[in-house]
Amino acid sequence: MKIPVALRAVFFSLVLVPVLGAFFPLFSQDDPLISSLGGEGGVRFNAEGDTPSVRTVPTGPWGDLEYYETILEPPIRMIVAAGYLAEPRDWALSIRPPGAVADLLREGGLEPSEIEILLSPSCTSVRGDQLRILPPADWIWKLDSGRRGRLYEVLSKEGINRFIAHPFTLGNDIPSSLAKLRANRFSPEFLARADSLTYKRGGENVITDIQLLYELLPTVEQRFELSQLLLRTRSLIVRMRISPNSNLAKLREYWSAGFKNKDILPLLESVSRTPGVDRLDVVHLLPATPRKYIYTYATEDMAVGSEFPDCYWTSFNFFEANEANRNLDSPTSQYIGSRWRQVQPPLRFGDLIVFSNPEGTEALHACTYVAADIVYTKNGLSLLRPFVLEPFSVVAQSYWNGGKNRVFYYRHRDAHTGNGANIAD
User: Which residues contact 50 (CB under 8 A, 6 or more apart)?
Assistant: First the structure.
């Protein structure tokens, strides 16, 4: 039976993660895989003020790697299709007694005087089975990040409001830092106002009130450009340096993943014997499916209903020659026992990393280990989030939650069994 994409994360959370908890060890905050992330020599994105440059990572079984940062942003046609500019600014709540609405807003940290204003006839209306609240713009602007985050966390449980339930995720960036990644036409004053609307959710900076920013921009073109800026995604271009001293036997062992990825072997051999060639983009060493999608965006024809590939689809299809819209078709115990087995660091090429909440009842993210401190992933279901290579330290900062969450590591049974390397080696 095919499981729709929309149910995968739920199935993964409620069934697979608890089963994983029985099979896989829990690693503490003291585990070197996590605690040494971001240390000297670790893979990282550029910090503000850095001069873009090619950096190297410590040599390991993956060989000698170098990398540099690149910036991806979706084309305007995709933003048009997403309908961002048409989203209303008001909040939608399911119909309930006035007292229950006040209780909800109180749970969101609002004062009685604020609730009174928001529930006044000038701010409320009823449309079908929804209560609509249009908060005064100046009041929204004055919310600090802490209050904004608490309020929108409560309102997100309604699941109705698009940018409250699914805000723009900025990672460790804010609008002004994203603006510095590439030329833009926004003034420092405008970007400062955009920065003031950011708040934290799940360890990342996010922004919900994009409509307020749209209202400050006089043209549709500028609004599309702002959407592109907020959707900028950092990724890594990674290259292997090849020399006469390279240990081809070890490189073949590592990148072929015990012949699970054997198709790359002829290319590796050929490049190593080509005079004047001393670098190979790691994209060419990935299996067919990630090689097809890396640095691109999912397309409409990949949809199952209204849902699109997410991090679980991306991870479970890493070694699949033909990507499938099923991740968990077989019974979970059989799926784990027949296809995946328990591993502990050091990790190997193609190993899966799964983050869950502290109770192990909700899967938060999955990514695939590539080499050094580099993973392959896609953040979320959105068509506007590309398939990328990221530093594992960036992923961990978003989902590890300072050691409060759990992390599991596992390996495809058809993949290699040789010695690996710690991410932070």
Answer: none
